[in-house]
Each structure stands twice: as structure tokens, then as C-alpha cells.
Amino acid sequence: MTAEAQPLSTEQVAVVTADGKVVRKATVAGAIGSFVEWYDYGIYGLLATYLAINIMGGADTGALFLTNVGFLVSFIARPFGSVICGYLGDRMGRKTLLAALLILISVATACIGLVPSHEVIGVAAPILLIALRVLQGFSAGGEVAGAMAFVGEYAHNATRNFSMSFIAVGSFLALMFGSAFSAVLITTLGDETMSAWAWRIPFLFAAPLGYIGFYIRRRMEETPHFEALRERKSVARNPLKAVFTSKRTMLAIVLTIFLPALNGPGYYLLFAYMPTYLKTSLGEGQNFTMLQALMVTACSLVAIIICIPLMARLSDRIGRKKVLAFSAVATAVVAYPAFAMITTGQIGLAIIATIVMAIAFSGHAAVIHTVLTEMFPTTVRYSAYSIGFSLSTIIFGGSAPLVMTAIINATGSSMVPAFAAIITAGITLVSLIFVAETRGTALRAE
């Protein structure tokens, strides 16, 4: 099932490479778009407890559980976004679709900030929330592979991972900004005011951010690789048919499901879900305040933002597989002692632990999407990558907060996320056996 790197074809040699300035513009456009998309997506996890109070009607375990159902529903919607957006992206191009996706998720996010409380409209409040989360999930399903394909198809072979790593940086910057923004609001207005109405502000802020991202993406040209397909009249007439009738592509999709297994605990537990975990899951007398939880998360975000470009540069020099393997092993080794430090309820130890985990995970965050981009040809890259990665996020990421909350409540153990990190790191390591090294290779055209 190894996804072998292929020699260059005449079609690949004909692909026009963008100059350095254009590559940098594409990288900035991808990173800013990623920032907007994942700010919109991430603040749901950061503000889950406030949503439980207002939309679900209370702050108890049941309300929080229902809020996490909203988290999961958005991931269930992702494959639908992946299939539809992947098809359109491989038929029509990357640029216009990516700009439209920013508008969709920004409008959905802003509307969450406008949903009346449970006290006002009763059960209609959670129904509206779930519907808006479905729209967010649909958009996110098309965003990841599209943004990565967009920058990857502009980047130079020798430095592709470094260029693409700034999309990941943009997503973590978005979470950090969301954490900082929320912390400032809590500090300035107080937790009571946040619970009453100010929780809506971060959601409403998505509207101007979305417009900025849309404007920047609309000004970019289509990628050189996709334009080359158009010039040769080689654009797939039915990308989905091409995906599902190719044994090689289907095997690569299977790898795309299991190779990023670590991404779930790494991204969604360590960052998006962490504030809720710190506030609700450590036990009586050990839970953090929301402000403290956001501070802990912000420190780990600073660490991973610094490390991602460094790990990507290392991958461009020594290879993708070595960096991914090191990151998986490091995460598995530090997960249990790190969560043991977190569960003490001491903020200093929690900050140290989350920073260590962020550094360990940074190699995976920096490299995984470049590997997935390089596994597929330009003709079906958007479709195949989207389908595989969306399924992976449902299995290993979207269900994480819901499953973690349920298991922690059932067992009384706050160490459950540590075991999730160890298990998924093992899945990523085993999957690496079947992946070919793609450092420095040209993207396949067909």
C-alpha cells in the first residue's frame, strides 16, 4: 500500500514555476485565509462553556455534552463539504472557491453570535446552533485541502514544506488570537458579563475578518499547476469518478485517513478543547478559571507557532518521514507525564506541560499536510485529499471532545486525553511505514 514517489513526466516538466515574489504572495494569502477560517472554527471550542450556559440552558455536564455534540456535528458535515468542494475545486480551480468558503464560514460564525438564548426561544436555540455548526463544518471540509493545494501548487519543490507551513501557523495564530481576545474580554468585562452577553463579541468579530480574507484571496491568480492542466485540456471531467476508479488514489486516501491520526488529540484536544478541559475536567478544587485556562492555551500556542516553520525547514532538508516519526514518538513519550502535571491544578506546571506537548506535536503539525498534498496528482488533489482528511478528522478529531467528556465523566479519570495522544501517535507511526519519502519531488500532474 506504499504511496510511491513517481519520476517526472513531460507534463510535470511543462508546469510553469512561479517566481519567489508570487510564491510569497500565495503563502500570505493562504495563511491569512487559514487564520480567518480557523478563528471562526476555533472559538466554538474556546467558548464552549458560555455556549452551554446560554444556548443549551445551563452549565451542567449535560449542557456541556450537548455543546460538544455541536462540535461533533460540524465534523460530520465536513465530508459533504469535502466531496462537493473537492469536486468543484478540481473542476473549476482553487482560488474562487476558497474565497467563497471564507464568506460562508464567517457568516455562519457571526450568526452564532446572534442566536437568541435558550431562555428566549427555548429548544430553537440549540437547533439553530447545530444548523450553523453544520455550515461551518461544510466550509472547513473544503478549506483545508484547498488552501494546502493552493499554496503547494505555487511553492518551489525544494522549499514546499516551509511555504505550506505558514497555513498551519495561520490556524494556530487564529486560536491564539481567539484565546487572547476572549481573555481580554473576560478580564475587562468579568465572567458574569461574558456569561450574560459578551460571549457573542468574538463570534460577531468574524464578519469583518471574513471580508478581509475574502478580499485578499480574490486578488490572487489561479495556481500554476492548475493553469497548466487547463492549457493542456487535462482537467478531470469528473474528479470524483477519477478518485474512486483509481486503485492507487484509493490506497492513498486510506493513508490520508490514518496517517494524520495524531492530529486529532494534537490539535483539537491540546488547543481547541484544552480551555474547556482545564475548566471542567480536573476535579473539585483543581479546575482552572476560564481566564487561567486561556492563558495556559496561549502559552502552548506561542510555542507551536515558533516551532512549526523550524520543523518545516528541517523537513525540507532531512525528509518528511523523519520529522513525522520523531514528532509521533516525542508526543507519545511526553503525553502521560504532561497530563499528570496538568491535573495537579497548578498553573505553572500546566503551562510547562502544554508547552512541552506543543513542541513535541509541532513536527506533525508542520509536515502532515505537505505529505498529504504530495500524495495526490493535481487532477484530483483537492477531491481526494479533502475526502481522506475529513474522514480522519471525524474519527480522530471531531469526536474527541464529546468522547473525552463522556469517558472522563464515566471513569473519573482526567488522564484520558493522554492515552488518546499515545494511541493515535502509534497509529501515525504504523501508517508511516507505507508512505514514500516525497521531499524535493515535483507534484504529479495526472
Radius of gyration (Å): 21 Å
Major sheet, described briefly?
Answer: none
- The helix/strand class is mainly alpha
Distance between the termini: 19 Å
The CATH architecture designation is: Up-down Bundle
The CATH homologous superfamily name equals MFS general substrate transporter like domains
What percent of residues adopt helix (DSSP H or I)? Answer: over 70%
Q: Count the beta strands.
A: 0
Protein name: MFS transporter
Subcellular location: Cell membrane
InterPro entries: H+-coupled_symporters, MFS, MFS_dom, MFS_trans_sf, Sugar_transporter_CS
Organism: Microbacterium sp. A8/3-1
Written description of the protein model:
Helix content is 78%, strand content 0%. The chain is mainly α. It has a single domain, classed as Growth Hormone, Chain: A, CATH 1.20.1250. The two termini are 19 Å apart. 58% of the residues are buried. InterPro entries: H+-coupled_symporters (IPR051084), MFS (IPR011701), MFS_dom (IPR020846), MFS_trans_sf (IPR036259), Sugar_transporter_CS (IPR005829). One of its GO terms (cellular component) is plasma membrane. This is MFS transporter. The chain crosses the membrane at residues 41-59, 65-89, 96-115, 127-152, 164-185, 197-216, 250-270, 290-311, 323-342, 348-372, 384-408, 414-436.
Give a brief description.
It holds the Pfam family MFS_1. The protein is mainly α and 446 residues long. It has helices spanning 10-13, 20-46, 48-54, 61-92, 95-112, 118-121, 124-152, 160-189, 191-198, 200-204, 206-218, 224-231, 239-244, 247-258, 263-272, 274-280, 290-318, 320-342, 347-374, 381-398, 400-411, 416-432.
